[in-house]
Model the fold of this input.
Amino acid sequence: MKKAIAIILLAFIAVELFVVFYKIPFGADRMNVARFYLENSPKKLGVANAVTAIVVNFRGFDTLGEVTVLFLASTALGSILFRRREIHTRLSHLRTSVEASVIVRIAGRFLVPLIILLGAYVFIHGHLTPGGGFQGGVIIATGFLFLLLAYRKFTIEHRTITFVESLAGITFAGIGLIGIFLGKTFLENFLPAGKLNDLLSGGIIPLIYIAIGFKVAAELTGILDTVLSISIDVKQKEIESQTEKNE
Amino acid sequence: MNTILTILIVVGAIILVGAAIFAVVKRDLILATVATSVISLILSIFYFILQAPDVALTEAAIGVALTTIIFIVTIRNTKRFEDD
Done:
């Protein structure tokens, strides 16, 4: 019975899909929305990268939702796994006992500033070149991951991370609200579009992407620090159980 | 130029499928995780060839680096409950 229902449903979906796709001629351009975006993003907004124009301007509200989802995920992870500061300092001697090799430490000295610079470049130039706030933020977070893996003494102040993250989130929402105060809609562009391919062009898009970059970098660095601190916690428990066995 | 691209795509696709099968079959979870990061790397090259550099950047940063690290840390800190 169940199988029969499943087969009937599948056949129904197949017929519907066939009817829909049969009407579209092969290879024809039926996407009016896409054409609108491609024509208007360089002309009206002065944005060279059409993907950025869609993500931040035409669909800016969705991006705010995405950032909120990432914030909720990092908050949930932190609330489950985060250890308090006293435990952290009690375990700090374990951090120094596991040190990375000399090659990793010396390479980190040269690579980490370059990685962070690349991330900043990606999100500042989000409206001109491929990439944007999310990608730049993730690249910066990998730079901090390098620091966390190479130098076990390196710790991240969670208060700073929280401050940067909240400030970036408030900036994003505040830029959106300014649009309402000026008599337009939420997250609508209120700055002049500027010249195409200039760094200071695209209205509010660079400002929003800089805020998103800081927010994503702070959130992901916090997640990585929390996850890596757990591994030290597990090691501490292993050592404790071993000493109990020895006694 | 076009033939070079075709060869690159074919070789990449073979490595991609091989890495995917390796990740499913292998019982060592760390090696399987490294195989999935290889999949992400080749996928990001494919996205770049197919003129989607935004997606390629995201895939390279998240798929290759962040997810792999989080998986490896999680695997190292958990125990296996099935028989090997």
In short: The mean pLDDT of chain A is 84. Chain A has one domain: 2-239. Residues 85 and 107 of chain A are 30 Å apart (CA to CA). Chain A touches chain B at residues 49, 51-52, 122, 130-132, 134-135, 138-139, 141-142, 145, 220, 223-224, 227-228, 230-231, 234 (CB under 8 Å).
